[in-house]
Structures are given as structure tokens and as C-alpha cells.
Amino acid sequence: MISRLSQKTTNNHYRLFAEALDSSGFSGDIELGYAERMVLATDNSIYQVLPEGVLYPRSTEDISKILTLAHRTDFQQVVVSPRGGGTGTNGQSLTSGFMVDTSRYMNRVLEINVEERWARVESGSVKDYLNELAAKEGLFFAPELSTSNRATVGGMVNTDASGQGSVVYGKTRHHVLELTSVLADGTVWNSAPVNDDVLNELCQRDDRIGEIYNTLKNTHEQHKDRVSEVFPHLNRNLTGYDLANIRNKDNQLDMNAILCGSEGTLAIVSEVKVNLLPIPKQSALVLVFYKSFQDSLRDAQSLMAAEPGSIETIDSRVLGLARADSVWESVKDFFPQQSDEIDGINFVEFTGDSEAEVQQGIDRLNAELAKLTEAGRVGSQVVMGTGNVKKIWNMRKQAVGLLGNMEGDARPIPFVEDVAVPPENLADFILAFRALLDEHSLTYGMFGHVDAGVLHVRPAIDMKDPDQEKLVRLISDDVAALAKSHGGVLWGEHGKGVRSEYAPAFFADLYPVLQDIKGVFDPYNQLNPGKIATPATMPEPIELLKIDEVPTRGQQDREIGRNAFEAFTSGLYCNGNGACFNYSPNSAMCPTWKATFDRTQSPKGRSGLVREWLRLQTAAGADISAESQNIRHGGALYNSGQKLINLVNKWRGEDDFSHDVYGALDNCMSCKSCAGQCPVQVNVPDLRSRYFELYHGRYPRPLKHHVAGLLEPMLPILAKMKPAYNLVMGWSLTNAVASKTVGLQEIPAITSTSPERDMCRAGAAIASRSLLDAIPAGERDKTVVIIQDAFTSFFDTPLLTDLVELLIRLGYRPLVAPYKPNGKVLHVYGFLGRFEKVAKTNGEELKALADSGISLMGIDAAVTLTYRDEYKEVMGEAAPNVLLMSEWFASQSESLRKLNLNLATDDDSGFTLLGHCTEISNVPAAPAQWQQLFTDLGMKLTYKPTGCCGMAGIYGHESRNQEVSRKLYDLSWKAVVQKPENQGKVVATGYSCRSQVKRYGDGKLLHPVQVLLHAIKGTV
Asked: What is the pTM of this model?
């Protein structure tokens, strides 16, 4: 049904189409709202094109209804474009018409046939999801992509995707067995290679299918010799209407060779049948380090003599960005600590069914490395084991997004990033390429597939600057010429998209053949027009899109006031890489996206909406920066009366894009996983806080904001009334009333009338600067100040007293800082002026304690990390240094080992740690630190990656969030917590997480320090 309309209206012709489609029995979603369209106006390219609407089909039949209707005479001006994961780097799926997104509903793996080694999937299924299921049978779908955790199989087909390992495994088309596609007139067709007998029968058909097969048959017969002359003989060939492979090696005619790489310009793929391969049982990587990146390129050809499965490369810029990213924690041990003399690294992979087979490959490589060479090698490192190899490849995958995280307005962008040349020509090509970029004084990063002759090169350009934008044309023309002169092609991996304008030059006199194929499949040019080829059958000649005539994001961004852009800069550099669309339920990245499959409920979506809102505000003459400062320091945009008038207008349905943006941000859980896991570190909680501050300068706040904002300062008072408070809050009537009036429910019981007094009884002392100064120097390393947080102190006091007792038993002196509100809840809801005051007051007191030289340790990670993020923004370098509990224990590792404790019992199978999503996303070392603590004390702790538990502080207590909260818990936590062998063996660091398990898990989880205390006391 049509689920959203907007006054920023869809074109009337498209609106009529949507209404007719809705009446036709279409069972999917029809989104016409401005916010929904805006979110899908970008991909991972430099372009931004607003679609007229977004269609989310639920089945092949739904897609057929779309195209059958579009084929009607009165709707032949309607154009449609399929979209998968939205990770395209060249605007492949962007359209000014209707976008058909199969990822929301058509994302199932329909069948895996183990005996025959194939799988049948819907086009919106994610590549890694397919491989997760196939891996259970020892199989995998081979084409490897850096975006594999969000790229859809249909998208891979549309771009004929490939990546690491393509020399061995080829491209997507090499693994496609059958395609179910919907043609431009709504015909559903299942295509597979056919022999001549079947082909002749198909050619006799008097319909669109017959026309298509006749055209393909004649094309091959008439042009096969010329195709052999024009098409470069490369691993990454001129795919997209692949004339060279219309006939396969068995001399069968294969329509899928034409459809793979066609980018939705010929048909919309709905189902795919792919072949699966056995997973290699063993793997190893040899990292070869070089003084010069150019040396790494030239040396790759000699390394290929060792017959590896693949050779990948990165330059020093990518390595430096990786070192600054959270991904580095998982791979740092495999690289030299100092990398000043390393300017390039080759990753050489060997796989096999036995360690001996892999070792033979390493021996061959070592023999090559032992030969005299002019390549400036500076050492190598062997990485054994599939698990370790996966960590390295994950870091290499991150390189795509990491390049977008360079500082400054000029960011590396994709527009000439995947030229393919014969591998032996790659070094010379890159030398000329670098000279071209140096001529324009551009910085850049490089990484890629040296074995296949493909290197990803991304020049850093500020697309907001009109003069720099012109470089896209200048460099593209020069690189296209360089590619041809070195025997290569401009598009070796990421498809053509907007770069299709170069197709006539590369296909030469074969380009009209592409036009004939386009014409027979799509005679009215309705399928993703302007890309790859245009039909010659149209009444008027139609040109391909031009790289400098399609709207770009930079053109939109330059309309945002500079002050406004800088105020929201933490979230505006999203480059569309789509890491937030990670399908895995065990990834913490963006829980609301995983729960809803609504792209407005994602970091990319939210960032895009705020960007557009800022642009519209600037156009309306608003000074966002001044408004923010006014509100923050006691002023207001409107008085209460005007706010009420605004609220009434909102209820009446006023056309204010602000409400759409608010709706997207209001559902953010503020878990900060995006800030930790997004390669560009888009910080949506920060965007949300800043936006809420401005929005509620114009519209009244809901009551729950005020109640939540008062919680921290009120808890010490409420704690004095603990019995009465707990009695009243425990009534079901109270819960129902609070849910209806305030929007909050299941408020937890208070566990202490005075947490500080309880901690002192357990053996701690109240910390003060005078007390800390009096501690002898020799005892300071054995002293730690515990910083309270509202949630642990008042709702989980036993954890504090257990921590105190554990520290004492381990020989430490615990002190406790007097309770002060941290202000995190104020920041979450955008009370930024009040937050600044709290942060300065609390921060200065904690800084005074920290200046004593004694460590400060927080309890709950979400609150503790506020001191190093939000407090630092307010206080700068004067912000207090408060360690996570895991970090402090890690600093004591040597001392703890010297205790020679062995707390494990004879039958101890160890414990399983479930991490707090904020903690593991922003401090990736935390799980390993907890494991080290257990090891130091003679116990075993295994870390189990899981996604968000669904609580996220206040979020899980909001009445409207209950469905999402429960869904997230069920996605990844439920199975681990309720697994019979895990009973009593699971621990969790997050207060929210333990609360969620108490609510939905029929049990209670302990914190790791509580398990350690029980072990010391012999009560495990």
C-alpha cells in the first residue's frame, strides 16, 4: 500500500502510477514521502539523485506488476531502477524515477542443495548471509567483496561483482547458474545456458523472448570475431552486455552473460541460482613489506610465480588509517609496531585442504623472496590459520571506508577507482596515474588486487568546492586514456553507472550492438536509463548520462551554511559506504536498522536527512549555529505560547520536513556503535542531541524528556524513600499510568538508600583530594577511585559492593568518589546547555581527583565513555581521564599474575562474556582485556560476539519501543542466554544488558567481577 505521501510532492505522473499499482494488488510497500526518497537518493558514489518514489516488492509477482503497469501506453514515461545494498560507487542504482528495492522483503535464501552444490536465493539476500548458511554445509559462494556483509546477490549480478581472489574464483557471472528476471513488459523469465536445439525452439517464439534470443544468436554469429579483437583479454573484462561470453565454453548460448553486469538496464532480477564451492580447510597469509608502494606493485608479478590464491596490496596511507581505526585491535600483532619505513604491503594468500598443502605454497613464496631483486622489501610476516587470515582480510575490507575518514573537507572519493589493466602493466599504469594526481597536487590512497591488475585509487577532492569538482571531468578523461593506452578498461570491478559515457570509446564499433541489445530488452528505455547503452530504436536519439551533468552530493552540501555544517560535522561526512547496513545480528552496528529494515532508521539515512534539513534551513535564512548558542545559554527560539501553536500546526499535518528528521532520530538508541564501527565515524547520537536541541527550541518537549532529565539528580532523594518508592513503582497500575502519561515503563527498583555508605561498609573510603594526596607514593599504584554512575549505584548496588570486596581481596585500596550526576541522559535528549553545566561541574571535581596521579575507574561503559567523548567536547584536554573497568584491570595485569591465583575448579568449563555494544564498538580491546583478567586469575573466559540486547539505557524503558527492544534481544542474545549449557556461565558488563536479560531471559546475569569474587570466596 502507499504508506507515505508528502507535500514535497512526487511528480503527478508517478503519483498516478503509484495509485494504479496500489490498486493492482501490489503487496509490497510504496514509499512517496520526502524523507524516504531522500535517504535513497545517494549510494557510495559522489552523486545524489532524488527518486520519485521507492517500491519495496515482496515477490517476483510484485515486480511483474510494476513492469506490466509501466509497459502500458499511458505509463511509458515512467522509469524504474533496481536497488540492492546501495553500495554502488558510480550511481548504478540512482534514478529520478521509481527505485525498486528488493532488500527489505525479498531477502531469503530459498534453498541450498548440498549434493549438487548450489543455492537459490532472492535477489535482495545479502552475500554474507548466504555464506553463513552455506558454511554449515562446508560450502561458500565465491566472489569476495569488501562490502559482502551488506551487498545483495542481486546487486552482485547487476554489476558482475568481484574482488579479492578473482584470479582463482572469477566474477559473479562465473557462478550464476540461473536467473529469474522480470522483463520490461512484465514477462517473468528463467534463464540458463541453452544448447542449439533449445535455442532454435526459443527463436521460433513470436514474443519478446523470441526476439531476445534471436538478437543474441545473431549478435554472436555476426560479431564474434570483432569482439575477440576489441575486448581486452583480462581477468576483469568488458562486462555488462558481455558479448565475449554469449556462447559459453560448452558452446551454449547464455543469456545470463548479457544480464550479469547489465545494472538493471535490461531486466530486474528477482531470484538467482548460484553454484557453491567447498570451503578450503586451511589458509595462510604472507605479508610482504616494502619501502616503496611502487616496489610492491612491481614485485607482485614475481610473487605470482609462487601460485598463490590472491595477492592484495595497500599503501601507507591506508595502513595509517587502519591503525587509527577500531579494526586495528584485531590485527596489530601481525604488523611491525613501527611502520615509518613501510610504504606498501602485499598480502599473499595460500589456501588448501591441508596444512601441508598451504605450507608448500609458503615454501614456493619463500623461494621467490630469497631470489635477488631490486624490489625494496623490508621483511615479511607469515599469518597462519583461517581465523587470523579472516581478521587480516576484514582489515583490508575496511580500507574502502577508511579512506573516507581522512581529516579535512577534501575526502578520497570513488570515480576512477577500478581501472583494470594487464597485471604486467599495472606498475607503469599506476606510475603514470600518480603523476597525473601529483600534477593536480592531490592526495590519494591506494589498495586493490595486484594479481588481477586492478588498483583502487581514490583522489581526495572537496566536492563542495566548484573548482575542485571540475577535476572529476579532467581526471576521468585522462585516466580513461591511460587505461586504453595500457591495454585496460575503465571499469574493472565496480560497474559503469554514470561512467557509461565512456562505453562508446571502449566498445568502439561494437557499441551499436549494445544499443540493439538494449532496444530488444527495453524498447522504451524505462529500465535504469542513461547507463551502459541507450536503445537506437527511440524516435529521438538518447544520450548516455554524463559524469559532470548528474547532480552530486557536493553540490547539495555547498548550499549548507558553513557554521551549520561545522556544528553538525560529526555526522555529515557519510560517504555512503553502507557499513551500517551490516546484516549480521551479531554485529552491534545500528540495531534499529536491523530491527526495522527501514533505511531512515540507519546512520546513513539519519545523516542524509540531517544534511538535507540543514540545506533547507540555510535556504530559509536560518542561522543554525546562532540558534543553538542562544538555546544553550538560556534563550529560546519561541516562547511557550508559540511552541504550543507550532505543536497544534504539527498535529494538523503541517508540511515541515523537521518532523520527518525528528522521527528518524527519535528512534536512535544512542548506543554509539556507529561512532565506533562506521569507517567514517558518523556519530548519530551526537547529531541527534544537536538536532533535538534545535527542534525543541521550536516545539514543546514530551514529558518523558523532562522526567528522564531529572532522573540522575533525583535518585539520591528517591533512594531515601526506597521502600515506598519500590512499593509504588512495583504496582501494575503505576506502570500502566506511567506508560500512558510519561511514555516510560518497567522502571527498575532502587537497591540502596545510600550506595556510598554500602561501599564504605564493604571496605571503601570516600575519595577526596586531601585523602589522595596523603596516600604514600608506594601505595598509589594499588589504589583506585571508583566513579559512580546513576544506574549501577541505585539500581544495581550489589555490583559496587562486590567490586570493592574483590579489589580488597586482590590487595588493592578502593576509594569511591561521591555521587554526582554524569549528565549522559541530558545529552541523549539534547539538553545541551544543562549538560555543559553538569559536565563542567562534575568534570572539574573528577579532574582534581585525577590530578593526584591515582587512576579513576568507571563502572558502566556507556556512562564512562561520556567522559572521554562528550566531556572532552565541553572541557577539551581538561576532561578527566576515567578508565573503563577492563582498562584499569588490564593496567594491573602484571601484578595480578604475580598473585599466582588459580581460581578455576577441576570441572571449570569457563564463562562466556556478552559485551556491551557501546563498549565493544568504541573500545574494541575491552573483550580481550576481560579475557586477560580471567586468565591472570586462573580462569577461562570466552567472548561471544552479539548484537545489541535491545535495552540501551532509557530506550528499552520507553513504551513505544517495546516491540523493537524485544526483537533485538531475540535476534542475538536469546539463543546464547537460554542455551542449556550456558546456564550460570554467561556474564555481561552492561547494566542495560543485564537488565534486559532479567526482563526477557528468565534469569539473572552476573558481571564478570562478581564471578571473580565468587571464585575467590569459593562460591562459584
From this structure: 0.93
